[in-house]
């Protein structure tokens, strides 16, 4: 019995003390929050120290070389690319290239894939195969077609590869505006045959 009474008194004291401690904690927390905001703003204004890699100090020559490799390299405007490509000279020097925009397919595929530009190499060294009668060629560039997004890209490629080029203007047919009623008119030019 006595232990229960003692336990109740201790619990009451703990509750009262806890209320006091909680009130004190709330009061100090409010002050700390305003101080924290000030401290955070000060911390944001302080510049951070730059981090330096350990490689800079361990191997400075290698670090400088790596930094120079990350920079852009200036190249002269005139490049001699065909020598590096490995293409034989007879396929470069005497080659003529046609730059054109492919025509619309006659089927129902639409005009989605004809907005690019292509280069086409001139054909040479053709003969008829005696076995089947097919046309054969010893020219590796005869069937090659390279696509570009714009005409200027195709011209730049030809200049870089030192090809002679000619530009073929695209053939665009303008549809004649007709009304639906002209399909049934008696005029011979617009009459559609039913047989």
UniProtKB/TrEMBL annotation:
Keyword field:
Electron transport, Membrane, Mitochondrion, Mitochondrion inner membrane, Respiratory chain, Transit peptide, Transport
Sorted alphabetically, which InterPro entries does this protein's record hold? NADH_UbQ_FeS_4_mit-like, NDUFS4-like_sf
Any GO BP annotation: electron transport chain
Say where the protein is mainly found: mitochondrion
In the bilayer, the protein is annotated as: Peripheral membrane protein
Show the GO cellular component annotation of the record. Answer: mitochondrial inner membrane
Q: Where is the composition biased (Polar residues)?
A: 170-187
Determine if Membrane is one of this entry's keywords.
yes
Pfam families per the UniProt record, alphabetical:
NDUS4
Q: Where does the protein end up?
A: Mitochondrion inner membrane
Q: Where do the record's region annotations for Disordered lie?
A: 168-195
Domain of life here?
Eukaryota
Which PANTHER family would you find in this protein's record?
NADH DEHYDROGENASE [UBIQUINONE] IRON-SULFUR PROTEIN 4, MITOCHONDRIAL, NADH-UBIQUINONE OXIDOREDUCTASE
What protein family is recorded? Belongs to the complex I NDUFS4 subunit family.
Its biological purpose: Accessory subunit of the mitochondrial membrane respiratory chain NADH dehydrogenase (Complex I), that is believed not to be involved in catalysis. Complex I functions in the transfer of electrons from NADH to the respiratory chain. The immediate electron acceptor for the enzyme is believed to be ubiquinone.
Q: What is this protein called?
A: NADH dehydrogenase [ubiquinone] iron-sulfur protein 4, mitochondrial
* Natural source organism: Cephus cinctus
């Amino acid at each position: 019995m006595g232990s229960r009474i003692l336990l109740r008194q201790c619990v009451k004291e703990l509750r009262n003390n806890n209320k006091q401690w909680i009130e004190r904690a709330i009061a100090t927390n409010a002050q700390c929050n305003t101080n924290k905001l000030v401290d955070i703003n000060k911390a944001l204004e302080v510049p951070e120290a730059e981090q330096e890699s350990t490689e800079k100090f361990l191997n400075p020559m290698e670090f400088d070389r790596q930094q120079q490799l990350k920079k852009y390299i200036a190249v002269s405007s005139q490049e001699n690319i065909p020598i590096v490509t490995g293409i034989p000279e007879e396929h470069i020097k005497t080659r003529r290239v046609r730059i054109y925009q492919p025509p619309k397919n006659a089927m129902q595929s639409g005009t989605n894939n004809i907005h690019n530009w292509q280069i086409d190499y001139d054909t040479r060294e053709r003969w008829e195969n005696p076995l089947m009668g097919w046309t054969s060629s010893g020219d590796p560039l005869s069937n090659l077609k390279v696509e570009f997004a714009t005409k200027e890209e195709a011209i730049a490629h030809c200049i870089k590869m030192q090809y002679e080029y000619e530009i073929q203007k695209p053939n665009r047919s303008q549809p004649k505006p007709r009304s639906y009623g002209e399909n049934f008119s008696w005029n011979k030019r617009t009459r559609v045959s039913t047989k």
